[in-house]
Amino acid sequence: MSEAHDDGRVLLEIKGLTTAFSLAEGDFNAVDNVSFSVKEGRTLSLVGESGSGKSMTALSVMGLVPSPGKVVAGEVLLDGRNLLDMSAREMRKIRGAEISMIFQQPTSALNPTYRVGTQIREVFKLHRDWTRQVETEKVIAALRAVGMPDPEARLRAYPHELSGGMAQRVMIAMALACEPRILIADEPTTALDVTIQSQILELIRELQSSSDTSVILITHDLGVVAEMADEVAVMYAGEIVETTDVETLFDEPLHPYTKGLMGSVPVLGDPRPRLEAIPGTVPNLTELSVGCRFASRCQARIEAGLTVCQTHHPELVEVRPGHAVRCWLYSGQEVAE
Amino acid sequence: MFAGREVGTLRSMFTTPSALVGVVVLATVVVCAIFADVISPVDPAQQHLLYRLSPPGTVSEDGVTFVLGTDGLGRDVLSGIIHGSRVSLIVAVTAVGLGMLIGVALGLVSGYSGGWLDTVIMRAVDVTIVLPFMLMALVLRLALGPGLGSIVIALGISGWATHARLVRGEVLSLRNKEYVLASVANGAPHGFIMLRRILPHVLASAIVLASLQVGVTIVAEASLTFLGLGVPPEIPSWGQMLANGRDYMTRAWWVTTFSGLAIVLTVLALNLIGDWLRDYRDPRLER
Amino acid sequence: MSGVIMRASALTKEYQVRRGALKGTATVKAVNGVNLDIRRGETIGLVGESGCGKTTLGRMLVKLLEPTSGKIEFDGKDVTNVRGRELKEFRRRVQIVFQDPFSSLDPRARIGDSMAEPLLHHGVGDKDERQERVAKMLEMVGLHRSHATRFPHEFSGGQRQRIGIGRALILRPDFVVADEPVSALDVSVQAQILNLLADLQQELSLTLVFVAHNLAVVEHISDRVAVMYLGRIVELAERSELFSRPTHPYTEMLLDAVPASHPRNRRPRAPEASELPSPLDPPAGCLFHPRCPIFEAGFCDEVVPPLHPPPSEPSRLVACHVRIREGQTRTFDEGESQK
After folding, report:
1. Structural domain containing residue A288
2. Residue C328 — pLDDT band, cuts 50, 70, 90?
3. Side-chain half-sphere of B204: how many Cα atoms within 13 Å?
């Protein structure tokens, strides 16, 4: 199934993206040498826990890294144009028109003092040259497309009058209003109840297939990944540790962290007497060791008797076509002492 | 642990220039108040009748320099200001301390207990805040009679209401914090919860408010004294000097200017410190 | 040792909510006439979406919230209105673990002091003995005894949740409500805490009420599960029965909504908006009927369904007219076919 799509055209290519922060507690790279590509009409999922750098990767692509953070290296190529070289003015034209983003808290991402219709209209004013009449029609069409019941009336609603699920529909309507080629969805359903999550995920899926939009889906939830992704990049402590297509990832995860994540999540309908917990906690980015960033929590390393993990940083190595992993267990290369 | 936190506080102070200015000015005033007898060039009560209303920098025959000039009775303005800092600080700090004590206690009880007690205390707050501050201080001062103690009470009573309202608001949100609920679930008595789980967290904002109130109170004390209802005339105070200098304002600007400047600088310093305290919160204690 | 340890009867919690500047107030029933028997030594999961009243119910069971009406019995004794010494004794035996490990510990108190607090209030031991109990409890929850002198900000979320669990268990309670204890934690840390809770529950023979919105987590840890919707329990059954054969249409909807566990198990879902009705203006009859795929007009929208066992399954309780009736015909059919 995955091969059939492999010839899909690469729309967005990210190469060696590195975003650095300099804080009182120390300097660190929130995103460290991250590379991946997004194909036309496909969904790439960035999976990780807090501090993995998945959200910061998205903000770096959008050119929205909060101060004092800064993109210090890498390229973000959209159709061969490097977004990182663009001026603030050029980026504003890209955002909303070619790449859009939706966030975890839809209610706080909307301006509470403006009506919903006005906020969607705002997007058209920025990117389209339409009459007010056409704008209104398009706003209603956008709300209808995201399954908003009674869109003509909802135009006049204020964000606080909407439930979380409805607010996320409005956010999606705004994000897709100008038919962007890429939608970045940062934990779009984490704040929503499970029945609403199901509706929103299906909505994204339908809108994507009807418009051939590419989606970068950021989540910590492996269920959402299984449900939505075509390709997956697992992130840990700022870097990608494993990347492959979604079926391979669930069938044959290689990185001990990916395996650990899968073992530590209870699966509905498959109760296990005991979960395989990953010991320890997510590392502090200012205090990373020179070796593998997962080494201190890694059981597989101890079982295999590897010592190189603590002294040398592993590279992301393609162990078979389309499946890369950052782990000494699979690198095959011995380090000369 | 605590050492580390204090180092952080100090570092923050030195990286905030306005706070540093405030601390330096206030420290100078405090030193003046404590060592007034040592620092002031002459006895502030001593009258140099030959040198009445001398401009700043005048040197007398017996070699005394009146750095900031003299007043209508030939008293040294600089020495008066140095000694006057005592009264201003003592009156303001004790009055604000009194107001804070009453206000924090009542605000704590009001917010924690709720119900009719809350209603009664909050209506009392409303009444206190609605009445003009000066008017109330005046009435209280007249009712209590002369003396430093009665000024302290008059000024302190007027300040409690703001504290009570501030503290009550914070208690209302703290009361539903999970660590407070945890104490309830553990069977903690009300006193323990109020004093150990809630009070330490409201104290920080009460102190910020107090530091701002000290400035206001210094002005209020000076105003009362200026009106002849404050500090008795035999004690040197900034308000008194201001009142005395008023008659000669056109001929001898220095008497009112320098005593007024002392008030302005002290209040400004307190406000700078208060602002910094408000902005500076140890982020590690916030979560 | 078996039998019912906690019994809630017609338990209700109402809140007055302002509708708007001129519209006056309205009454919201956060918990609406809940009957629940909790058996000694079991882990019972309370599951439902936001606004279903699971947290309010949990807090009423540990008496952090006063019920508006109804009765709570603990160990055969009515504790609805206990005060003073009796309340203190209740607090010794009934404890709670909170959701947010960042707000459940006083940021200004050393964790040793936070953990020793229950011992202090109940007059257990002298200072040294209390310190020793804290040290032992720290080790029991997987921390080190030297951690007692540190402050909460020095710990990660998972470690703080261990401390919260230790504080709840230090008096050796019989009954613990854990209110979403893992939902604020990183995925890789959740499993540690779930395993710890399960171990401690065994070791200390606790009765555990596990409040959560994550169905897989509830399935993992519970013996029995109660599904709540808009303040009511709509289904209550043994874990395996509830998850393998959900009976209430809302339970079915919840289970269907859970994302696939493997990309091959993806299935199409309904993208149409179907949302919780406003609790200010709850529907008449069955609260679920406006979203229900099997609702029958003139019946479900008029009569409130009671929480009843379907005829064929005495161990399950369901609040659904249609399913109860189907159950009756099904027993009849089965009876026929056996002939």
Report:
1. 259-331
2. low
3. 15
What's the CA gap between A253 and A248, in Å, rounded? 7
Instruction: State whether residue B194 sits within 8 Å of chain C by CB.
Output: no
A186 within domain boundaries: no
User: Tens digits of per-residue pLDDT, A209-257?
Assistant: 888 899 999 999 999 999 999 999 999 999 999 999 999 999 999 999 9
- Residue A310 located in a structural domain: yes
Contact B287 C117 (CB under 8 A): no
CA distance B37 to chain C (A): 42
Nearest to C219 among A148, A165, A268 (CB): A268
Q: What does the alpha-carbon distance between residue A73 and residue C149 come to, in Å, rounded to a whole number?
A: 43
Q: Say yes or no for a CB contact (<8 Å) between B188 and C121.
A: yes
Number of domains in chain A: 2
Distance from CA of B75 to the nearest CA of C (A): 53
- Contact: C273, A166; criterion CB under 8 Å: yes
User: Is the separation of the CB atoms in A124 and A135 below 8 Å?
Assistant: yes
> Once rounded to an integer, what is the mean pLDDT over residues B45-74?
82
| Residue A75 buriedness (CB in 10 A; 0-12 / 13-18 / 19+) | middle
Residue A161, in any domain of the structure: yes
Which of residues A179, A197, A232 is at a domain's end?
A179
Per-residue pLDDT of C136-185, as tens digits, reads 999 999 999 999 999 998 898 889 999 999 999 999 999 999 999 998 88
A268 and chain C: CB distance < 8 Å anywhere? yes
Other CB atoms within a 10 A radius of the CB of residue C218 amount to 26
- Interface ipTM > 0.90: no
CA B92 to the chain's CA centroid: 4
Which tokens in the block code for residue A286?
A: 């200012």
Q: Which amino acid is at B169?
A: G
